[in-house]
UniProtKB/TrEMBL annotation, chains A, B, C, D, E, F:
Family the entry assigns: Belongs to the 4-oxalocrotonate tautomerase family.
Annotated Gene3D superfamilies: Macrophage Migration Inhibitory Factor (3.30.429.10)
UniProt keyword terms in alphabetical order: Isomerase
Protein's recorded name: Tautomerase
Protein species of origin: Falsihalocynthiibacter arcticus
Length: 69, 69, 69, 69, 69, 69
């Protein structure tokens, strides 16, 4: 499982907290267990933090997209 | 979000059902909304089915690994 | 460069044509050359066709999402 | 769409500029629209900057490869 | 570890054999163990077979590239 | 070839050394040449260093997983 999320949020707005990342890891692991009976011991999760300027949608970097929409 | 899962399961054991995939899509989207307040409308999920011979762990293709462990 | 696209389109609606894929390969290669002066000879492109049931947005598989929106 | 590029270039040679990244995002989005009629609003682009020591070709890290070729 | 290889080779030229894939899985696992002392039990390998028309280099699909070079 | 490894190791424990990365690049390239006769000149390797908090296994961030097991 590869989770790509923008580098924002958390208490100072710069990135998600380690606690939030732990919740994502636990959440996707139990989701795979519930839906497909996958063993959490062999469920790998990698989180990629993506800088805002590296995330594009609607032909724009996400910050410009958000301002426009 | 990229979910890589082995091509197995489902009623005939050959692959997950479309219903299970829909549950994964809904599950990871609401997880990202709950934990990081991400908007589901801009949350993309891609599921990769991986043939069993293409999935390795413990130096072995997964079927051999399961037999051995 | 990894391009993930849904498995649809083309003359019979089942998938993009090889000609369209060749256009994508040429297009992204010259884009990287124009913007960042990258050498096409060392620009790799991999196209992933993703089955419609494996592509999720807005908490739904894309076909259901399109019907709903 | 995932674009992996080496962490170089730009005015001080250390990395591409945000403007160049915006051009890549716009370029690949309109390419997908032109070739496959994809809606830019549901076209996601993620750019990965890769450190030079993490990029290998011809059995060598790219800087050594460039010196040799 | 994600290994992307073109869908060719093997006895009938259509794809790598399962035996070759097992060699790749074993090889990268022991490489990571030798170089970085990684535990093979927690080393995951996923092999992606890529259709020839989906693999681009030098602005061309790989078959055209090979014919040209 | 995409190698994802945790950001640890090396002389000060913070990350793999450039020499180790060069060994990985050379190792996977010659493995592909040995097993599938791939030309090293067109074998691309990208190494992703993953922060420990971004790597999950067994429903836990890897550091917690290691402490628990």
């Amino acid at each position: 499982m590869n989770i790509k999320i923008t580098r924002e949020g958390g208490p100072d707005g710069t990135r998600p907290t380690n606690e939030e990342k732990a919740q994502l890891i636990a959440g996707v692991s139990s989701l795979l267990q519930d839906v497909l009976n996958k063993d959490p011991k062999t469920t790998f999760v990698v989180i990629d933090e993506v800088a805002l300027e590296d995330w594009g949608i609607g032909e724009l970097p996400v910050m410009q997209y958000r301002t426009k929409s």
